[in-house]
Design a protein that fits this description.
Blueprint lengths: L1 E6 L2 H12 L5 E6 L2 H12 L3 E6 L8 H11 L3 E5 L1 E2 L4 E2 L2 H7 L6 E5 L11 H4 L3 E5 L10 E6 L1 H8 L10 H9 L9 H17 L1 H21 L3 E2 L8 E5 L6 H12 L4 E2 L9 E4 L6 H14 L6 H4 L18
Parallel strand pairs: 2-3, 2-4, 4-7, 7-8
Antiparallel strand pairs: 1-9, 5-6, 8-9, 10-11, 11-13, 12-13
Helix pairs in contact: 1-2, 3-4, 9-11, 10-11
Length: 329
């Protein structure tokens, strides 16, 4: 695979994928179960592609058989998937979906912006041709650095594109890489911080990092459920957790309380789930103390005084040290 670094947000990396491996008239099948899956379709339409969207209810597990059936009928040139849908916390069974496809002529593009560094991704084994990622989530770098990893099939298609990209051109970046240069001004400081994060991950070992995310997300999910919250997605991710509040509890009220009284910023739902979800995530700089502070704040927001039960799931991660050095300290 070939990796390209861009001075852009994660959406820029997604656009880079479409700009290089698709062109006006390309048939793009979008597997969509939320805001960020939908974004693939918006980008493809902007490039005048013929777009077919297979929609899944937000938070609902994606049925590989439905995707395979639609692919059989539509015969796409490109199929787009979202590994972790940040708007719902759902993790896609990427391997299961790709293996069920009837025809491997289509390129497979994966939005891994919310999953790189926290979820296992095996591009070659799963049949992923091109991946879009970003540094500001599990890699704990500042926003503004994104990347694309392209396999051989994607590179071959990009080389034949009748309408090549300019800023996001694989060819342009590839030429620059031969001399250790970039075609446009790089985000130097952000790249250096991203490099530091990657060194931290290398030092800890990727399996240990995955284990850390698994333990932390499980602990928070169990503690939240003890406090009366319900996990929303059918297949939760390690990166983002989404919860439905107890009956009669306002999501916006909880979010405001945590921010004003405890200095904790968490997110609400998006699009049709706006005002209905509370979302958390531990993709970057955090420790066991941060997890404990969050559970304590949520308990206060919900009026729960007996913390012993809620704190019990945190025991395995209570003394978890930060993985990354904060750039703010």
């Amino acid at each position: 695979e070939t990796a390209f670094l861009f001075a852009a947000s994660g959406t820029g990396a997604m656009e880079a994928v479409v700009a290089n491996v698709a062109h006006p008239g390309s048939k793009v099948l979008v597997v969509e179960g939320g805001k960020f899956g939908r974004r693939w379709g918006e980008i493809a339409r902007a490039f005048e592609c013929e777009v077919d969207i297979i929609h899944f209810k937000m938070g609902e597990v994606v049925d590989p058989a439905r995707v395979a059936e639609r692919a059989e009928k539509f015969s796409p040139d490109l199929i787009t998937l979202t590994h972790v849908e940040s708007s719902t916390g759902l993790r896609l069974d990427v391997e299961g979906i790709v293996s069920a496809l009837p025809d491997r002529r289509a390129l497979i593009a994966l939005d891994a912006i919310a999953s790189v560094g926290s979820e296992n991704i095996l591009m070659e084994e799963w049949g992923i041709d091109v991946l879009a990622g970003a540094g500001q989530k599990a890699l704990a770098a500042p926003a503004g650095v994104s990347f694309v990893i392209a396999g051989q099939r994607a590179m071959e298609v990009a080389s034949r594109n009748p309408r090549p990209a300019f800023y996001f051109s694989f060819d342009r970046y590839g030429e620059g890489m031969k001399t250790g240069d970039t075609p446009f001004t790089p985000a130097v400081h952000s790249v250096q911080l991203l490099h530091g994060s990657m060194e931290s991950i290398r030092g800890a070992g990727i399996d240990a990092v995955f284990g850390r995310h698994e333990a932390s997300s499980s602990a928070i999910s169990n503690a939240f459920e003890i406090l009366g919250m319900s996990s929303f997605p059918d297949l939760p991710s390690r990166s983002v957790q989404a919860f439905l509040p107890p009956e009669g509890i306002s999501c916006e009220g909880v979010i405001t309380f945590l921010g004003e009284k405890h200095g904790i910023i968490i997110a609400g739902g998006q699009d049709e789930m706006a005002g209905r979800l509370i979302r958390t995530g531990f993709p970057g700089i955090y420790s066991g103390q941060v997890l404990e502070k969050l559970v304590n704040g949520l308990a206060a927001a919900l009026g729960e005084r007996d913390l012993e039960k809620a704190f019990a799931p945190l025991e395995p991660v209570r003394n978890l040290p930060p993985l990354f050095d904060s750039p703010l300290t």
